[in-house]
Amino acid sequence: MEPINPALDIESRRMELRGVVQLAGEVIAQYWPMRTFVHHNPLHSLEYLPFEETARRGKQFMGGHSYLPGTLYREYLKTGRIELGHLDAALKSLVLDQSVTIGSRRIPHGDVLRACLTDGLCALATEPLDDQLHDPAQAVIDIVAASLSSEWAFPDLRKRIHRIVEGDQAALGRWLTLSHWCDDTFGTQIVQQINHELIKWCEAFLDEGHATWAMPGREKGLYNAWRDLAAQEWSPCGIADSRRKISRLPDHPEDALRQSLDALGIPANLLQDYLSLQLTALPGWAGFIKWRAEERDYPWQKAYPVGLVKFLAIRIWYASELVQKTCREELGIEGRYDAIVAYMREHPDEYYLRRQRVAGRLPALYAEEVDRLRHHKGNGWGRVIERYGTDVVPRQEIAARRGAAKQLIALARSLELDPAVLAETPHAVLKQLFDWMESFPESDHGPVWLKALEAAYQQRLLAQLRTTPQQRTLPADQPGTNRPYSQSVYCIDVRSEPFRRHLESTGPHETYGFAGFFAAFIRYRAWGKEHDTEQFPVIMRAKNEVREIPRSYLDHKVSKHEARTKWVHAGHTLLHDLKENVVTPYVMVESLGWFYGLPIFGKTLLPSLYQRWTSWLRRLFVPAIATTLTVDKMAPAETAEMLAAEHHAVVRKVLHEQGGLRSSRITPVLVETLRQQALNGQADLDTVLLDAAKPAELSPEVLRTLVDILRRQYDLTARAASRQKERITRTGFTLEEQTLTVDTALRMMGLTNNLARLVLICAHGSTSENNPYESALDCGACGGNEGKPNARALAMMANNQKVRERLAKNKLVIPPDTHFLAGQMDTTTDEVQLFDLEDVPPTHRADLARLQGDLKEASTLTSQERCTRFPDVEQPLDEGAAESHVRQRSVDWSQVRPEWGLSSNTAFVIGRRELTRGLNLEGRVFLQSYDARQDPSSRLLEVLLTGPQVVAQWINMEHYFSAVDNDVYGSGSKIYHNVVGRIGIMSGPWSDLRLGLARQTVMNGDVPYHEPMRLLSIVEAPRDRIDKLIERHEILRHYYHNEWVHLVALDPDDQLWYRYRPTGEWVPLA
Which residues does UniProt call coiled coil (predicted)? Predict the structure, then answer.
């Protein structure tokens, strides 16, 4: 038998632990940096579970509620958003075929459950108010309470304590960490202390250029950087001898984590849940670390690596030390799982009293007694429990029976019964009624209310779609004969729906919906920017890059523009450095304070005027330059030429700065031969280089030095050149790729015949001031960026004559007089800006002028409609006032709701525009154009269900969870927001990274503006095609079978509507 290699055994244990951590991390969602805010489901990793089970997991690990409070659902019932019929239908699966008789009336089980919902009878009892102390039914309360006493026997206190101990033992490690157990038992603040330490270290390590002084040693990774620095702290959290303990921790974070878990004695079967509890203590920071760890090409991750194992190694070290310290001081036991379980089992009386004391549930005299006994060993705890059982417990039992009696009387009133009849009702019947109520607590009401709310909305929406004119649902195989003024393609975003509706009302314009990246998967770099943006859904990847460059006829203006841009950048950098310096702020307050006063005054008192003034100054100093995009792929010769040009610029710089040569002495031959020497990496200098260097009087020693500088400092090597060449070859699209992109986009949206003279590809973005969440208002399909680059790229491809020739061979003919135009709608101001107008043919100027006029009218109408939804607009505004108001919101830095568009999203329609044209969908529906007749293979439908639908579902779930529990799944009030590390938001000076959306985004005061409902997807396609796609894709089975998304289909084959059940069946709609 071969001996086991210890090194391999250690590595296998590390891999096993990494696997457990990965599974534990399923309960937290990835957290994208706020500059590219991505809407997502905060419980996305648990979508393989049914929705209701995931809601329970969210409560277990994060303490979050997944449903609105019953009081708000009851308000929906009062206002008609929910009807009793919907509530009864939602209750149907819970109703038993049982009833009781009270007086002469038969009371079914379902009536009791409905009364619990509609009147809140099962809510936790509270202390009575003064006006409730003398209830008019006092006599009945006494009789009913006495009646219940014969049927309702309370268990002995010792048995109750035994059940509590058993429950807490079962919860330890699954619902409760040892740190939480200590806090709940001894009143310590271990969890808060650990969180404070982790926030401090995460904030410093994960900073992306926001902090003036960066944390040292970050290149070593989070764990090792923390170990080096924390070992220099003096007793963090009161941990004795912390310097020695930290300095002796293992080098590998996996080993340190295993060591701390062993110290806590966590059983193997509880390990995953226990680590999940630790991660969800700070789900924001942990979520960002999870995202960083999975984005290996992210520059900050490559420079400063971080992962969940490193995070947990630090967190659980603090936990093990503090739990050990607390358990030894309070109980004289080891802070281990088995020791704590043994304590609860062997000292149940003491444990019960300690927990009740910390929870504030003991009367004052008993609380004082517990405080005196905290360090006492003996029978004192037993004597206190005996007195407690004879003194307090009987009064608690009486109060419980009286509370039950009041609930029964409230039930009688809800059922329109005289409460007095309860006094004559048999004891067993009263107990049966109370058992029904008790078995349906308020915590179980949420799923029922949610189903009823969804059913009510879905009924109204589907009624709209089904009562539209007959031609909406007819096949309409023939192409249209009347050519429209224009055809416009907008993002599926719900904010596009009102604009499309209003544009169509201005004249014969056709509009289409398509995911805002417009099938152009690109990495994009704007002119003058140093970093790329990823212009596609985050669930996908791109292989093509596009650059924005100045138009060729503006070469004489480009250098002037770049110089002035550099001056502006240098000025901003100087002011920033002066502000962040230790000394200069003292001088700046006196000398430049007035300068900062101007923008404060302007932005506060005259925001619109100040914005126009600063924009004018910016245009005056740095005029805009017309640009185009590098859509076409370069030929191999062009690629080599571009790479050589980049290298030549570097070589010239080195010859000038390091070689001391004037420009006149730097010949092209010298530059090229020196470049080739650096690329080859040979030790011996080439004779051609030596000859070229003679006129410049460069010795071989100097040449070797220059080659070394080029290779080491500027990475001018063959390997680096290969990487650069590969990057350049990714720029642009081949003719085949362009053809495929345009073909896919046009067929997917059904825009394949009767094309107008102008086809507008309209992206969307937003404008706001002082808004860290600005990217949340941009295009989710473009990774939280504006969609302008995608619109411009698709328009340029579609205008390419060679692309059109290839499309014609595929039987997709674009008329020669059709011109594609790119634009972008500002969803805050509703204005549409058009791009690349110099490419519009002179023959289309009249068409363009008409389109611009109608776009302006649609913008005004949309603004008027949106203004009716703002809480601070008390009456309807005329056209001019509406335009002014939305523009003011876009530049007002005190505005917490620059726009309110995405909130209230509820449904996603995939089908022809005929289904929805002319309908006022209130800006609540994602509209994706699709014609099943153009997609016999279902290839396009497959893309829509697994791409845009996923984006819509993430947006929907982000809003859902932010609305139902904004404190846990949202980010709280904007009043307390502080930007941290250029990555996210904290509340106040320190907190977890806040998840989700701000309170002002989803709430109108204390009432949800966003009605939280799961997404309803409506698909116009044959059911058999949809079935095959569901069978093929796991994500679709998760959505529909686990009730994350509701699915309804309009089958073109029989023109009937069907609902898809979680069981996989199609049921015709009544």
Answer: none
